[in-house]
């Protein structure tokens, strides 16, 4: 299959085309709603709170409501390992990438590059393109993200040791709790008390089978995640000056490294680990990692910079430009991933 045939097959795939067009058009719709003042000042933050406290936890938990097999368990373990490995690698790699910078600017660019908006920006896109399996892999991969964001990220930006509040944020926020609970049910479902349904038995915590009255409202909450996230992103873009961000050389360098460089590093590293059979990763696993890594500045990382008064203006510019850049490049990454899929390099 040549390149033109690959592109043709992608354009004929309604799921991929629909996911790309939905994300871009709904983001533009959110931008329009804010510019016309249909969405008032502060609405973006309110939508974000709903997504982070309700929709994403429901999406994360529901993604684990599926049968387990040897392959999916192996993929989950490998992605958990890679999650910790890549963040450790990026901690050292960013020191080299930004070696020309000094002081606070260097520290801030390092942290902003390591931590993207994986939860708010990445998972809704993964859900739209790769479904529940992709969300499950993303939730497992994101465990390392939470650990490093609230430990290394906080220490690097504040200059002090991690405190009890950040430890609580690391493990007790709704998304992490939903991920661990869902993962527990998924991994130990054969060992939990069973409920007979027809000629099959399921763990009593498999609410998709044993408590559909609870599972169904959670699916509605989960379904809100992507459209609300995209509307919120569009509304946020409408509130920030594009001209100032586009005139910042540092923001351009950062955006290229964050949205293009970091995902590319993951593709190369995972290809080597896959062909050497050191850490086999499936195509959906690869796609999950690439999309998570191609996300713009993490909100928490930006909040650290502003809170501790470290290059807050540059951080705001980086956040805006990387968001615009990610919106443009995410469809391109999905196309690149489909090309990789056609090459059958990953299982």
Automatic annotation (TrEMBL):
It is found in: Membrane. This is Transporter, auxin efflux carrier family protein. It is a multi-pass membrane protein. GO terms for cellular component: membrane. It comes from the Bacteria. It holds the Pfam family Mem_trans. One of its GO terms (biological process) is transmembrane transport. Its main location: membrane. The chain crosses the membrane at residues 15-34, 46-65, 77-99, 111-130, 136-155, 167-188, 211-231, 252-273, 279-306, 318-340. PANTHER family: AUXIN EFFLUX CARRIER FAMILY PROTEIN, SLR1864 PROTEIN. Keywords: Cell membrane, Membrane, Transmembrane, Transmembrane helix, Transport. InterPro entries: Mem_transp_PIN-like. It comes from Cetobacterium somerae ATCC BAA-474. Coiled coil: none annotated.
């Amino acid at each position: 299959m040549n390149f033109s045939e690959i592109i043709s097959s992608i354009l004929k795939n309604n799921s991929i085309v629909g996911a790309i067009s939905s994300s871009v058009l709904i983001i533009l719709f959110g931008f329009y709603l804010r510019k016309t003042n249909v969405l008032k000042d502060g609405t973006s933050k309110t939508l974000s709170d709903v997504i982070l406290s309700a929709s994403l936890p429901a999406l994360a938990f529901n993604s684990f409501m599926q049968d387990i097999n040897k392959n999916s368990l192996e993929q989950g373990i490998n992605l958990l390992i890679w999650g910790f490995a890549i963040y450790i690698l990026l901690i050292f790699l960013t020191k080299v990438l930004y070696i020309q910078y000094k002081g606070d600017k260097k520290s801030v660019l390092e942290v902003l590059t390591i931590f993207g908006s994986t939860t708010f920006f990445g998972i809704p896109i993964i859900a739209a393109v790769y479904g529940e399996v992709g969300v499950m892999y993303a939730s497992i991969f994101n465990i390392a993200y939470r650990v490093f964001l609230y430990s290394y990220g906080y220490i690097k930006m504040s200059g002090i040791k991690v405190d009890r509040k950040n430890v609580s944020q690391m493990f007790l926020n709704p998304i992490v709790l939903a991920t661990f609970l869902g993962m527990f049910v998924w991994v130990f479902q054969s060992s939990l008390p069973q409920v007979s349904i027809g000629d099959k038995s399921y763990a009593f915590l498999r609410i998709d089978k044993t408590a559909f009255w609870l599972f169904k409202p959670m699916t509605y909450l989960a379904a809100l995640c992507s459209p609300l996230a995209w509307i919120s992103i569009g509304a946020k873009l409408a509130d920030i000056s594009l001209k100032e961000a586009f005139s910042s050389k540092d923001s351009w360098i950062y955006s290229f490294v964050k949205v293009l460089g970091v995902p590319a590093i993951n593709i190369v590293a995972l290809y080597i680990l896959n062909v050497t059979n050191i850490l086999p990763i499936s195509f959906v696993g690869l796609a999950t990692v690439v999309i998570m890594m191609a996300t713009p500045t993490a909100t928490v990382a930006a909040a650290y910079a502003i809170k501790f008064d470290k290059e807050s203006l540059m951080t705001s510019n980086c956040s805006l430009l990387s968001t615009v850049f990610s919106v443009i490049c995410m469809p391109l990454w999905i196309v690149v991933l489909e090309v990789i899929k056609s090459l059958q390099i990953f299982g």
